[in-house]
Amino acid sequence: MRFLDEFINYMSSVDAAKLFRMFWFFFIFEFFRFFLVEISTIIFWKFDSIFRKKGIADARLSLIKNQPLVSIIVPGRNEGKHIFKLVNSLKEQTYQNFELIVIDDGSDDDTAVICRNLEHRGMINAFYRNDVRGGKASAANLGLRFARGEYIIHFDADCSYDRDAIENILVPFFYNPKIGAVGGNVQVRNYKESLCATLQALEYYDTISIGRITTSELGIYRVISGAFGAFKREALDRLGGWDIGPGLDGDITVKIRKLGYIIHFEPTAVCQTSVPVTFDRLIKQRLRWDKSLIRFRLRKHRDVFFPNDSFKFSNFISFVENVTYNLILNVKWYFYLFDMVFNFTSQLVFIIPMNIVLYTVNNFMKFLVFSPFRDRKNEGITYFLIYIPLMVFYFGYFLRIVRTVAYVQELFFKASYKDSWNPAKSSRQAKALKL
Amino acid sequence: MSLKIVPQSIEIRNNKIEFDNLLFFIVDSNSSVKIEPLIGYDAIIIDAKDADFAKLILKKIRTHYNPEFYLKPVFLINYKESKDPILHNMNDGLIHSYDQLKDIADIAKQIFLKTTQLDYQLVATFEAQMVKKVLNYMFTRDLKTLKPIPDLNSAIGYTYPEISVNFDSTEETQVLEILEWAEKEGIIWPDFYERIYLCNQCNGGFLSYREVCPHCNSSNSSAQDLVHHFPCAYIGPLSDFRNTIDNSLTCPKCNKALRHIGVDYDKPSIIHHCNNCDKNFQDFFVKAKCISCTQDVEVQYLIPKSINIYKLTKRGRTAAGNGFLSSGKEVEDIFGAISMPVFKTLLHYEIERIKENPEQKSCIAIINTENILELYKKIGKKAEKSVLETIVNLIRENIKPTDFIAFENSSTLYLGIINSEALQAETDLANLKTLIEKLIKNNFNDFDVKINFKVKLLQPFNKSEFQLDELTKELFD
Questions:
Q1: b or e along B188-204 (b: 16 or more beta carbons within 10 Å of the residue's beta carbon)?
Q2: I need a labelling partner for A345 at 20 to 30 A (CA). Which of A334, A398, B80, B456 fits?
Q3: How many whole angstroms separate alpha carbon B387 and alpha carbon B375?
Q4: Cα of A240 to nearest chain B Cα, Å
Q5: Do A142 and B226 touch (CB under 8 A)?
Q6: Spatial separation of the C-alpha atoms in residues B474 and B426, rounded to whole Å
C-alpha cells in the first residue's frame, strides 16, 4: 500500500516534459505509429469505402460474370488429416469455379493415402506428391506448375475459410487491375485453447486485421500470409513462383511489388488458423519468421533501398518502415532501457510500473477504439478485455526478446540456413548463392 | 465297300475292325459327324490327321448325356502333338499304326471292366449330374485329380478337360461353379494352383491391364521425371529443363544449368501427362480391359477366382464307383412339388387307402427328360430352377389337385395319380409329354427335349419304395 501511495504521488508530480523524457520511446515511435497513424488511416479507409462501394459492387459483378478459373494450391507436409475438412469447407464457398490442387511435400504419414483417395473420389482435382521432401516453396511451385487457373490462391491445409472468402479475395482484382496479389484476413481459430493462443489472437487482431488495413491503405503492405493469399497467375509466372523460405510469404510479396503490382489486403476475406498453443512452439515459429526480416529485407532484397532501374518509392518506404519498426526500434528499445537504467536509476522502481500502466492503457484504448472497425469478431469484446493487461508483457517483452534473439542469430550466424523447416540440400544451395 | 489291309492281317471293313473280341470303329474325315450310330461299337479310333475334326468327334462323344457314349474308349491315330487340352487329355490312348491295336484293346477292356462296376444312381441337380459324369469318367480311367491346364481357347484361360469338355469354351466359369459345388459337397478338395481375375461383365479371363488417366480413362499418356532445382525451388517436368539447342538441362526460372543430381537438383517423383485430355496426374488408375466384351473394369471390381488342383476325397473316391447322394436342396423348394420323403409318405397313405377300397385305382408315374442336362448346361444354374418350376406349373395345370409331384432330380420326377386307371394315366402322361416338349422347344431355341415316361398301377400289397424302384428300373431298362 505504501508503494502504491508513493507511486501515485510520483506519477502526479511528473509534468508533461518529464513524462515525455521518461517515455519518449513510447510517444515518438509506438503511440505515433501504432495508434495515431493507424487510427487516422482506418478512419480515412472507412470514409473512403463509402466511395468505393459502387466500384466494389461492379467488381463483384464482373467476377461473377467472368467466372475465371481459380487454382487453389495447398502445399504441405503431413497435413493429410486436415484435407478432408478443408475439402468439405470448400463445398460451402459462394465462388465455386476453382480447382483444388494438394501438394504433398514428402509426407511420412498417411497424407498420400488420404489425398489419393480424395482425388479418386473427385473431391480433389489434383494431388501431386514429391516422394522426396523439397521444402514448402518447391511444393507450392509444383502446384503452380500444373495449375490451370487465371488466379492462384495459396491455402494452408489446417485453415478454414469463411464461405465468401474466395469470392471476397478475388473481388479486388476486378476493382483494380493493377493489383497483383491480395492477402486474406487471418484470424485465430483456437484462441480459447490456451493463454498463449489467446494472446496471439489479440496480436492478430492488432497486427493483421488493423495493421494490414493500414499498410495496405498506405501502399506499404509487405506480407501476404501463406495461409490465405491470392495471386494473379501472370505475376507468379513472371517470377517463376516462390523462392526458398523460411519467409517465402514476405519474399513473394516483395517480388510482386518489385514487378510494379499493387498488393492489397482484403479484411472481408476471412481465414481462420490454428496458432501454436504453447510458448515454446510459438518461440520456434517466431524465430523463423523474424529471421526472414534480416535474410530477405536486408540481404536478398537490399536493392530496394538503393536507387536503380526498378526503384519504387512505395517499396522503399515499405522496407524502411519494416526495418525501422522491427529492427532499429528493437535495438533502440534496449538503448531506451539503458537510458532509463543509467539516467533514472533511483526512479526505475516507479518508471517500470508506469511504463506498464501506460502501455496497458494504450492497449485498452486501441482495442476499444479499433473494435468497431473490425469486420468480424470471433468473440465479444469482453472475452479479451481481461487479457489485455498481459499484452504488454507478451508483446512488449516476450516477443521483443524473441525477435532480438532471431536477429542476432541471423545477422551473425545466418541461422535461417540451418532451419530444419527447409531441407538441408536446398538451404546449402541458397546459402552458397546468397539467396 | 472299302477294304484296307493293315499289318498282321488286321482287316478294316467299312471303317470297322474286329480285334480281340472287340469291335472298333474308325472315324475319319470322311465319316459322318453324327455319333449316335457309334453306340454299338466297343471302342472308337479317331483319325486325328484333321485335328479339328477329331476334336469335334471326341467332344461329341464325351459331352453326350448317355454313359454308353461318354465313357466309351476313344483312341487317336495319326495324332500330332496338339496344344488342345481336350484332344490331348480326353482320349484313352494314341496309336501310330494298327499294329498297336493289342495295346489299346487292353485299355478298352480295363475301361469296360470298370464301367460294369459303376452305379448309375440318379442324382438331384445339374451340378450333381455333371459331377457324377466326371466321377464316372475318372473312375473308369483311374484318374485321381482334376488338373487345370492353361488354355488360350478357354474364356478364363484355364481348362479342366474332364469337366470342361461338357461346356463351350465361353462357359468355363460354369466349370468353376461346379467344382466349387463339388468341393462344398466334400467330393473333392482343393490344392491352390493359381489365382485368376475375371471380368465382372462376362466372366472373361483375358484382360489387358493398363495404366489409365484418372480423368478420362485413356491409356494414351506419357511419363516424365519431375525435377526440383534446389537454388530457386522451381519444380517441373524434365521437359521444362531441356535445352532446345543441346542436351544440357537449364532451369526455366533462374536460367542456371543443372549440374549434379543430389547437389543442385533432384528428381522427387514422376508426372504423367494424358495425351487425350491434356491433364497431368501422378496416380494413374489401373484398369483391366476385357478382350471378350471390351468392358473396361477397375481392378478392384474384377472377380477373383482360385484355380485349384482338385483331388478326390474319400467320399469322392467312393462316389466315383458307387455313386452318391447330393443334398439336392435345389429341387426341394420348387413350388408345386413336394420332397421325395413326403412323396413316399403320401404314397404309403394312398396304398393303405386303396388296400381298404380295392375298387379304387391309383397310379404312379415317372417322367425323365433324357437330354435336359444339355439344356441346363446352356442356360445356367439360375435358369435351371425356373425351367423346373415352369414344368411343374404345366403339369399341375393338367393333373388333378389331389395328384402329387416330387423331383428325384432335375431331370426325373415322380407323379402320384389318384383315382385313375392305368390306361387313363398313360393317356394323360402322353399328353403331358407333348406339352413339355412343346414348352421347351418354344422357349429354348427349338431345343428338342427327349422325354420318357412310365406309368404303373399302384399295387395295394407292395411297399411304396419297392414300387418306385420297380417303376424306375422299367423306365431305364
A1: bbbeeeeebbbbeebbb
A2: A398
A3: 10
A4: 5
A5: yes
A6: 15
ipTM of the complex model: 0.84
The boundaries of the domain holding residue A189 are: 1-66+159-435
Question: Dihedrals φ, ψ of A186, to 5°?
Answer: -90, 125
> Is pLDDT at B81 greater than 70 in this prediction?
yes
Q: Which three cell numbers stand for residue A195?
A: 493463454
Cell numbers describing residue B161: 478337360
Of the residues B70, B97, B116, the one at which a domain ends: B116
Distance CA A215, CA A225 (A): 14
pLDDT at residue B225 in the model: 94
- CA–CA dist A405, A323 (Å, integer): 16
Tens digit of each residue's pLDDT (9 = 90 or more) over B260-290: 898 899 999 999 999 999 999 988 889 999 9
Question: Cβ contacts (< 8 Å) between B266 and chain A: which residues?
Answer: 132, 134, 425
Q: Over the stretch A263-280, which tens digit does the pLDDT of each residue have?
A: 999 999 999 999 999 999
Contact residues on chain B for A130, CB-CB shorter than 8 A: 226, 228, 235, 268-269
Query: Which of B225, B234, B256, B258 to mutate to test binding with chain A, by most A CBs within 10 Å of its CB?
Result: B234
| Grid cell for residue A302 | 537490399
Tell me which residue of A250, A240, A251, A260 sits closest to A180, measured CA to CA: A260
Chain B residues within 8 A of A147 when measuring between CB atoms: none
B247 is in which domain, residue-wise? Answer: 219-283
Asked if B235's CB is within 8 angstroms of A145's CB, the reply is: yes
C-alpha B463/C-alpha B408 separation (Å) is 18
Note the helical H segments in B398-445.
422-443
Out of B308, B325, B342, pick the residue that ends a domain: B325
Q: Please state the domain count of chain B.
A: 4
B83 alpha-carbon distance from chain centroid: 20
Task: Give the Cα separation of A401 and B122 in Å (integer).
Answer: 97
Q: Do B228 and A130 touch (CB under 8 A)?
A: yes
Angle made by CA atoms B123, B129, B134, in degrees to the nearest 5: 130
- Same domain, yes or no, for B151 and B191? yes
**Chain B neighbors of A119, CB-CB under 8 A:** 214, 283
User: The sheet that has B145-146: what strands, in order across it?
Assistant: B145-146, B303-312, B188-198
How many residues in chain B? 477
Instruction: State the cell numbers at A309.
Output: 532501374
**At which residue does the C-alpha cell 469337366 appear?**
B163
B97 contacts B45 by C-beta, under 8 angstroms: no
Q: Verify that B355 and B399 share a domain, yes or no.
A: yes
Mean pLDDT to the nearest integer, B202-219: 90
- What is the biggest distance separating any 2 CA atoms in chain A, rounded to whole angstroms? 74
Q: Which residues contact A153 (CB under 8 A, 6 or more apart)?
A: A70, A71, A72, A73, A98, A166, A169, A228, A229, A230, A231
- B372 shares a domain with B453: yes
CATH number at residue B416: 3.30.70.270
Can you count the helices (H) and strands (E) in chain B? 13, 23
